[in-house]
Fold these 2 entries.
Entry 1:
Amino acid sequence: MDGTSSTDVAVVGAGAAGLYAALVAAAEGASVALVSRSPLAETASYWAQGGIAAAIAEGDSPERHAEDTIAAGRDSARESAVRVLCEESPARVRDLQELGVRFDADRAGNLALGLEGGHSERRVVHAGGAATGRRITRTLSALAATDERITVLEPVAATALATGDDGSCAGLTVRRRGGEAVALRARAVILATGGMAALWRRTTNPRGAVGAGLSLASDAGALLADLEFMQFHPTALRIEGPRDGFLITEAVRGEGALLYDSQGERFVDELAPRDEVALAIHTELERTGEPAVWLDMRGVEVERFPNIAAALADVGLDPARDLLPVAPAAHYTMGGVATDLDGRSNVAGLYAVGEAACTGLHGANRLASNSLAECLVFGRRAALAACDGPAASAAAAAPQADPRVAAPPGDDTRAALWLHAGLRREAEGLAELAGDPYPLARLIGGACLAREESRGAHQRTDHPAVDPALDGMHTLVGKDGAPAFERWR
Ligand SMILES: Cc1cc2nc3c(=O)[nH]c(=O)nc-3n(C[C@H](O)[C@H](O)[C@H](O)COP(=O)(O)OP(=O)(O)OC[C@H]3O[C@@H](n4cnc5c(N)ncnc54)[C@H](O)[C@@H]3O)c2cc1C
């Protein structure tokens, strides 16, 4: 990699969305550069536990899956995106099987389907108990590494997008750690850089999930959407040390795990959608001043979740015997680069998929296990659209010597996001956040301020009710502008 290189499609990010998009584009005959900053084991995809939601069970249907997704999204999910996800997810599960992913089966040899909060049916396909992400990404990554049309660039960071005089995207600048900046010309760039939950102080995400793709896209003129909708997972381990924030999948509650307050009483329906359970726990913690509530897995077949049992053993906890201290943590970015149903942003030649994108699918609250499905369904659609798209602008993709996106923020910004854009927000704190030195934090603060209501993951103490006028409305924000609301069909 030196000077200037060129490729048909540049995919930035090698989690589930990027790997799958790269493989689909390569299968279409495109040359693909797959750029990844961190190793596979540091992607959110690798960490995914519960599984992939797909209406496969007898008696289930894409329509029922869609109804559950829309209900969880709190009247804010984009129905066209929901339909696409729910109709195409079963076929993508079959694709993975054909590519060699072995999902867990029941005694009769059929796919074993898990139940998670907000789903009215068992429809979560999983592998290795709660090691679904690891199994999928290992298979996809091995295929990408041996595909002659794919050049894997790792560990290499995308540091700027190159736009032509007409504003379209003509490639990007990449840089190996300590190396020179290199221009990579591409007909299309697909951002699959994951979410931004690690901008919050307490998170379930890998450290690198700081929304780099959102910053790159915004800098290149793309609109970002729904930045106020950060999902907090209800049951992240609450302990001192590096395992703090370790996620305990919702699937354990699907198998009967219960939540108790400090008096040993149940206080919430454990299988309600995530926003509801997370808020109930937060309220309980505010009321008691305790750091955690208690998750009881003692009635659950622990052997089904070997990686959770192993992680807990690391910190001296035995789920068959001990109650587990848990509290909410920032988990999933419902917002992202605003795209259509084929991953297109408003910048020609620039696409976004997976957690970096916002199709509007999740509305104000993602339904459990819909995001791996999203990576596959929209990863494929974007790859096909990118291969079909027009040639890039003739403008040279000159390397940018200096990164155009700010380095990941310091602890002050992470603390400010946790404090001011946490499970409950109000105008005064959000106004402070909107003046944060970190550009993406400023945009998040602005989007939270603009949405003067409480909906799903966005709870305002100063606007505690849903505003029906905002049903189906998404916030859109450019690099320097004020957020505007738009209705998406
Ligand atoms: C603990 C945990 C458990 C989860 N469980 C589930 C589950 O069971 N089911 C489900 O549906 N969802 C689950 N999720 C959510 C789901 O895993 C993610 O939404 C999804 O995997 C995101 O995939 P992605 O490909 O978009 O991004 P990621 O998997 O996060 O990959 C991002 C990639 O982008 C790269 N990157 C970032 N910035 C740059 C840059 N500037 N230059 C180059 N490369 C860059 C990274 O190195 C990485 O390769 C879970 C998430 C977590 C954290």
Entry 2:
Amino acid sequence: MDSRLAEFGKGHKAFQKIKFNENKNRFKKLVEEGQSPKALFIGCSDSRVMPAMITGSKPGDLFIVRNIGNFVAPFNPDADYHATASAIEYATSILEVSDIVVCGHSHCGAIGALYKDIQATPDNIHTIKWLELGKDAQKVALLAHKHSSKEILLRYTEQISVVYQLDNLLTYPAVKRRVEEGTLFLHGWHYDIENGNIEYYDDEDFEFKELGQKDEHDSQ
Ligand SMILES: [Zn+2]
């Protein structure tokens, strides 16, 4: 075995022995009946964000798409390849999930990069374009917290960005239609990797509140 990934090999063996066995019947059922996930989880690619771990979800519960900064590009039907848009469409129209979570997180490198002067090169051309999806949030955050500490400014940008991505979700026809029908619910979360807490965006009180005290199916 490739010694560079030996620890993953060991981890996989442990998974087969313990976790796979524990979930054997569940996996069998998921193969026989297909998946029927509860939610689409749009998260950051950051290695410190573990969707299944932080939500206590089991195999088959979450349909996950991750990208740099947990951004949602606005609906833009063209001939290009759109990975996140495709996952949104598949989850919304084929799997018919009842909930979509956009989960931002603390210490996000993508949000931090908005405040750095990064020169475009052939090595980062897609990243620089992708980070444009955080610019609106950055503008609002700077208006509110230009003179606050960097930490406050960054946490605030991460949270505002989540709210903007929820708006972008509504540009997808199937998402908008199902939200209006009351069969799809959107949620904005912010996960703090330092203390393990998740907060959700309350669109009636316009603030982030601790998850766990949340009523089921509160919109956003
Ligand atoms: Zn991130």
